[in-house]
Amino acid sequence: MQNKISKEQLKKDGYLPQRQNNLCSMRVGITGGYVEADQLRAIADAAEKYGQGHIHITSRQGIEVPFVNFENVEAAKEDMKNAAVRPGVAGRRVRAVVACQGNRVCNHGLIDCQGLAEKIDRAHFGADVPYKFKIAITGCPAACLKPQENDLGIMGTVHPEWIKDTCTECGVCVKRCKANAITMEGGNLHIDMDKCILCGECILACPKDAIVASKTGYMIFCGGKVGRFPHEGTRLAEVHSEKEVYDIVNRTIEYYRENGGKDERLGDVMDREGIESFKDAVLK
Asked: For residue 57, what is the domain's CATH number?
């Protein structure tokens, strides 16, 4: 088995060679941290059948079954296929999209993170790129999924609007605002949009619905990474439709393919080519 399949091919199929000879970890392809119960049972069965009876939860919402012998890879592949469990990827490819539960579950979620993740993952998962490409989607500026630390990050935003006729001047929004962007004086409420972080906490806090959402959006970050040489992502733009999000994702990956060198992350390409060149290509 070891002679027939190269380590690069193993990685492409989601099997990561371990430090022990003839052993690898089976990486499962998960989108947005979402796994069906039947899939979990199949993965547990594979861990007992091919591994050592346990799994590893990765830092990017993934699942790996370690200690799989090379000679069992094909059988494990077949079992996962029958259970509708997609293999993961490694190497120079677009990795699985990570996402929080967004507005489907979380009180603070402003956007449908799971829906975005599914569509983006369907279009780009496993695609070849100059190096690894990671995407994270987070539902609000609490940024639980760290969009600034990924090659491309998407964060939900909301713009608050004050409705004077409904306001009782209770001051709850002033106390709740984490950015100190709201002041109340002489019966008038002022929201300083230079300070506002677009989190929507004031909207959640208001007992009279006197602060409402004027528009919801998506803040896009590009060029982030962690690792040996961390690089914070650049805030690229705020857009207000899913179509604009998909267009930016598509153009960003296309730009990376056309301009990236081998083993060069997107942030390195942006630094080399210049941010304005990147914006011209991506924000058409």
From this structure: 3.30.70.3340
Q: What is the pLDDT of residues 135-177, one digit of tens each?
A: 999 999 999 999 999 999 999 999 999 999 999 999 999 999 9
Does position 249 have pLDDT exceeding 60, yes or no? yes
pLDDT surpassing 80 at residue 1: no
Q: Locate 10 and state its tokens.
A: 């193993």
Q: What is the pTM of this model?
A: 0.94
Domain count within the chain: 2
Same domain, 49 and 153: no
Cα of first residue to Cα of last residue in the chain, in angstroms, is 49
Q: Collapsing DSSP states into helix, strand and coil, what is residue 47? A: helix
Report the pLDDT value the prediction gives residue 4, as an integer from 0 to 100: 57
Structural tokens at position 261: 């060198």
The domain that holds 247 is classified in CATH as 3.30.413.10
pLDDT of residue 91: 87
Q: Which two tokens stand for residue 41?
A: 């049972």
| Domain C-terminal end among 62, 82, 102 | 82
Closest C-alpha to 61, from 106, 23, 31: 31
Among candidates 98, 134, 111, 145, which has minimal Cα distance to 213? 111
**Residue 50: in which H helix or E strand, if any?**
helix 37-50
2 lies in a domain?
no
- CB-count burial class (<10 Å; 0-12, 13-18, 19+) for 264: middle
Q: Which domain holds residue 198?
A: 91-284
Burial class (CB in 10 A: 0-12, 13-18, 19+), 20: exposed
